[in-house]
Specification:
Elements: E1 2-9, H1 18-25, E2 33-40, H2 45-54, E3 59-63, H3 69-82, E4 87-91, H4 99-106, E5 112-114, H5 118-130, E6 142-145, E7 151-153, E8 182-184, E9 187-190, E10 202-206, H6 209-221, E11 226-229, H7 248-259, E12 264-269, H8 276-282, E13 290-297, H9 301-306, H10 313-324, E14 330-337, H11 344-357, E15 361-366, H12 374-382, E16 385-386, E17 394-396, H13 402-419, H14 422-434, H15 438-448, H16 460-471, H17 476-488, E18 503-504, E19 512-516, E20 527-533, E21 536-542, E22 553-556
């Protein structure tokens, strides 16, 4: 029989572990030929359905996420019309909680829904289908249709107990090594109790260090250099053991540093759980090897208590400050808006606090009430009004009006388009550190000019001009940083939006090269522009022949200036 796995991703860069994980879990189930079709959510459902039909599947499996739910169901319904005898099986996060029953009730083209981890259920389901058995009641976590079309529910799903010892998914022919990055798991579950998370208080299972090393060696052999760990909280379980053994997070970090220095790792960490041994190891990290996503979510103590999040605001601030103080790390921070007990001013204060600390990026997102989470069951008690269609975003709470949520969207765009933009980052932070209320000043300024109403950002040069106008004459250090960034990008000095007036000049004999190729200044095609700043002068070497979109080099008369 033919099993077809249908994957609908958000972009080419993304890939799903679901197919290779399930394929290796079903390795002992005989009589099945596996195939896969991968598409993107912007692809034509009609064309995707015809490609699925062309494979002539007996069973078609798909994983449902909130970002691909509607498009995947559209394709599967079309397939069912084209191939009525094909069994449609779905699973994934959208099938948690009441999601599984809702899908069976509203989508008659779905034959089976797998609730929970597919590796624990699908092997038994395929055995039953292959043997033409009518009784599916022993398959854990399965919803299916009885003889008269009624929905049968086998109850809660089992976890896949053999996950940690199973063959690595990289051994499956369906594992894709040719993506810009790949995802792996070194653990499943999370001991933290955040009520908005699908993994809150879920059983924790760990892969051995030997298994992790085996997987990373397979990835390296396949040419992979960018790895994203799907572990919910990488640094859970920190702290040395009583017998002196290093904690698991430290052992993993040492493995990355000592055995895989040519690979880059993206990790999610809870700043509250940065124990002394983890901090010591992070200080020894190779430059640029670790990209750390620090989950802050909120710095309001009442809010943290309401959602069961571990730690205090001060411990989270302390942990994030440590991460941002490590120049060898790339640290980003996340905030959520719409949590219980959270007001608009709380969100603004949290954003300003994070900006003062200075992570490379700050992501502000609206809370989503995900299927199967405790917060989904508690939403009514808290008075949370949210969309019951993807992405399940909160729209109003007793503490935030619907207009407040419009402001949240604008603030999120401001952070993404100005604070997170590499070219504007230094200038933006300089203004915040001079006056933390600059954030709300800029929000009002950009809102007045309707520059935040659309998700698409104004082009970068336009944002330079808007930011310079917002600085005016009150933010000298920020204007200096903005001028340096403009000149560094080799934009026209004559169009510099700040008050500075660059001058064509000669490079002083005693000038010191701060960055770029010092020899480029000797080229007959080079132009030297002097930028006078409050702390001295910088000299920018423009040479379109070898640096079309940046300054070829930056010099200073002394070492007091930074490029």
């Amino acid at each position: 029989m033919r099993l077809l796995w249908f994957t609908l991703n958000s972009s080419y860069s993304h890939s799903s572990l679901a197919l290779p994980l399930t394929h290796v879990a079903c390795r002992y189930v005989s009589g099945w030929e596996w195939d896969g079709v991968e598409a993107r959510i912007m692809d034509s459902p009609a064309q995707v359905a015809r490609e699925l039909e062309r494979k002539k599947p007996d069973v078609c499996c798909a994983v449902l996420y909130l970002f691909n739910l509607r498009a995947t169901l559209d394709c599967l319904q079309r397939l069912k019309w084209l191939c009525p005898d094909c069994l449609v099986v779905v699973g994934g996060p959208e099938c948690l909680g009441n999601g599984a029953r809702e899908l069976m009730d509203t989508c008659p083209f779905i034959d089976h829904v797998v609730r929970g981890e597919a590796e624990a259920c699908l092997p038994m389901l395929l055995e039953a289908i292959g043997n033409e058995e009518d009784d599916l009641s022993t398959v854990p976590g399965l919803l299916w249709r009885g003889e008269e079309g009624q929905v049968m529910d086998n109850g809660p799903a089992d976890v896949y107990e053999a996950w940690a010892e199973a063959p690595p998914p990289e051994e499956s022919p369906f594992f894709q090594m040719d993506k810009p990055f790949v995802a792996i798991e070194t653990s499943r579950g999370c001991p933290c109790g955040c009520t908005f998370c699908t993994s809150g208080h879920s059983p924790v299972r760990l892969k051995s260090l030997e298994k992790v090393e085996q997987e990373l060696n397979l990835l390296r052999k396949g040419g992979v250099r960018e790895v994203r760990l799907l572990d919910r909280t990488f640094n859970a379980g920190g702290g040395a053991w009583e017998d002196g053994r290093l904690s698991r997070p430290v052992q993993l970090l040492q493995l990355f540093r000592n055995c895989f220095p040519d690979m880059r790792f993206h990790l999610e960490m809870h700043p509250h759980l940065l124990t002394a041994d983890i901090r010591k190891e992070l200080q020894q990290a190779l430059p640029g090897q670790l990209h750390i996503e620090a989950g802050i979510q909120s710095l309001n103590e009442r809010t943290l208590k309401a959602v069961g999040r571990l730690g205090s605001p001060q411990s989270a601030i302390d942990g994030l400050r440590f991460l941002c103080a490590q120049p060898q790390l790339v640290a980003h921070a996340d905030l959520l808006a719409g949590l219980p007990e959270q007001r608009w001013q709380d969100i603004v204060e949290d954003a300003m606090t994070l900006l003062e600390i200075g992570p490379g990026e700050i992501q502000l997102e609206t809370l989503k009430i995900l299927k199967g989470t405790p917060l989904e069951r508690q939403a009514g008690d808290f008075g949370l009004i949210y969309s019951h269609f993807p992405p399940y975003d909160v729209m109003r709470t007793p503490w935030l009006s619907s207009e407040d949520f419009c402001q949240v969207e604008r603030l999120s765009r401001l952070l993404d388009q100005y604070a997170n933009a590499t070219a504007l980052h230094a200038a933006f932070l300089a203004a915040i550190r001079q006056n933390r209320r600059f954030l709300t000043e800029l929000l009002a300024f950009l809102q007045e000019r309707k520059a935040l109403e659309m998700a698409a950002a104004p082009d970068l040069k336009h944002r330079f001009h808007l930011l310079a106008e917002a600085f005016g004459t009150h933010y000298e250090a920020a204007a200096d940083a903005l001028a340096k960034s403009w000149m560094g990008l080799a934009y026209s000095p004559d169009a510099l939006p700040t008050h500075h007036r660059p001058q064509l000049d000669r490079l002083p004999q005693e000038a010191v090269c701060l960055e770029g190729e010092a020899a480029s200044a000797q080229s007959p095609h080079a132009h030297v522009w002097r930028l006078d700043l409050s702390g001295g002068s910088l000299y920018y070497i423009y040479n379109r022949a070898n640096a079309a979109h940046r300054a070829a080099a930056v010099f200073a008369e002394g070492r007091t200036q930074q490029p």
